[in-house]
Amino acid sequence: MSHNPVRPWRNIDRRESRQIMVGNVPVGGGAPISVQTMTNTDTSDVAATVAQIQRAADVGADIVRVSTPDQAATKALKEIVRESPVPIVADIHFHYKRAIEAAEAGAACLRINPGNIGDSKRVAEVVQAAKDHGCSIRIGVNAGSLEKHLLEKYGEPCPDAMLESGLDHIRILQDHDFHEFKISVKASDVFMAAAAYQQLAEATDAPIHLGITEAGGLMSGTIKSAIGLGNLLWMGIGDTLRVSLSADPVEEVKVGFEILKSLGLRHRGVNIISCPSCARQGFDVIKTVEVLEERLEHIKTPMSLSIIGCVVNGPGEALLTDVGFTGGGAGSGMVYMAGAQSHKMSNDQMVDHIVELVEKRAAEIEVEATPDAAE
Questions:
Q1: Beta carbons of 300 and 269 less than 8 angstroms apart
Q2: How high is the pLDDT of residue 374?
Q3: 119, burial (CB in 10 Å: exposed 0-12, middle 13-18, buried 19+)
């Protein structure tokens, strides 16, 4: 639960679920909602794939998925797993033997699609490999690749068909005494995905992996994901998520964290509160925020920064942020610390000064958070 006794209207009661482990990352059972992405390099190119994983981890990715379409990919996976700073999920489609090879290579989790992995005998072999090598499994139902008999039954992809596919596969895993699984029911249609996830949340206690699949480019995909995932998260549904964008995986991670931060479900890095700017602005707000976002990207400590162009809302927003800057006149503005006026600063020096203040405050927060800091 995201509990706020002062502002109860901000509380989110998270759905109760079992907990599984993806490597060293707990998923479900009240654990923080983890953020995932997926590489788009040629998996057999170990150096390029590891470099992309590292960039994603640097901006906060907890888990990274890697496609393993052939033996060259699963052969490379062993070295990728060894060099990766985060747990690796092997993405399996069509050929169950790739799943077995990925488990042997050290993947922390196997993503299998009920619509194309094969019959229950093949699934049994995948389950045995997961047991033998300590892998968890994600059942990845996708509206675009549902089983033929379900499409014939329902006539088209729909929430009921997706739910039935997922529950059928859950039964197969449970019949093989395998319970270390999470599940997703993704669609590119926001309405279909949301409805399927709501039904799924009521039908199982398995951890749920959220996603709006094939959401689109950076702008359109971010909006679709924010609407679809944001509403589900607000309802308390979801234990891990991936934002699927036709963009750099780093951007997927950033968007995922921003969605979680906006709902108070995860806190990482600097949350910049800024105005859209207007004729009253005392400095170039848009350019300043753009530069600050880049220069403060290295800060992992949760904290807030307000950058407001004028005194209409500036002092009020600063009341609720760790550091604030409000535009004034004569080429300068007011710096706020912990909601209180601190000192004036010239516009031409404000960016360097704000970066310095944020870094200093982040260090103070880290010290304050250390258990023996007072000793």
A1: yes
A2: 47
A3: exposed
Q: Residue written as tokens 């890095």?
A: 269
Q: How far is CA 279 from CA 218, 266, 275, 291, 334, in A?
A: 29, 35, 12, 21, 18
Rounded Cα distance between 52 and 219, Å, is 21
Q: What's the DSSP call for residue 151?
A: H
CB 25 within 8 A of CB 16: no
Q: What is the DSSP letter of 263?
A: T
pLDDT tens digits, one per residue of 282-305 = 999 999 999 999 999 999 999 999
Taking a C-beta distance cutoff of 8 angstroms, is the pair 240, 207 a contact? Answer: yes
Question: How do residues 261-285 score in pLDDT, each as one tens digit?
Answer: 999 999 889 999 999 999 999 999 9
Q: What is the pLDDT of residues 181-197, one digit of tens each?
A: 999 999 999 999 999 99
Could you tell me the sign of the dihedral formed by the alpha carbons of 215, 221, 224, 226, in that order?
A: positive
Give the contacts of 332 (CB within 8 A, at least 6 positions apart).
282, 344, 345, 346, 347
Q: Calculate the average pLDDT of the chain.
A: 93
Q: How many CB atoms lie within 10 A of CB 350?
A: 19
Q: What is the pTM of this model?
A: 0.91
Q: Cα separation of 43 and 72, whole Å?
A: 8
Count CB neighbours of 104 within 10 A.
15
In contact, 353 and 325? CB cutoff 8 Å: no
Helices (H), the chain: 46-58, 71-83, 96-105, 120-133, 148-154, 159-175, 190-203, 218-234, 249-262, 285-295, 314-318, 350-369
Radius of gyration of the chain (CA): 23
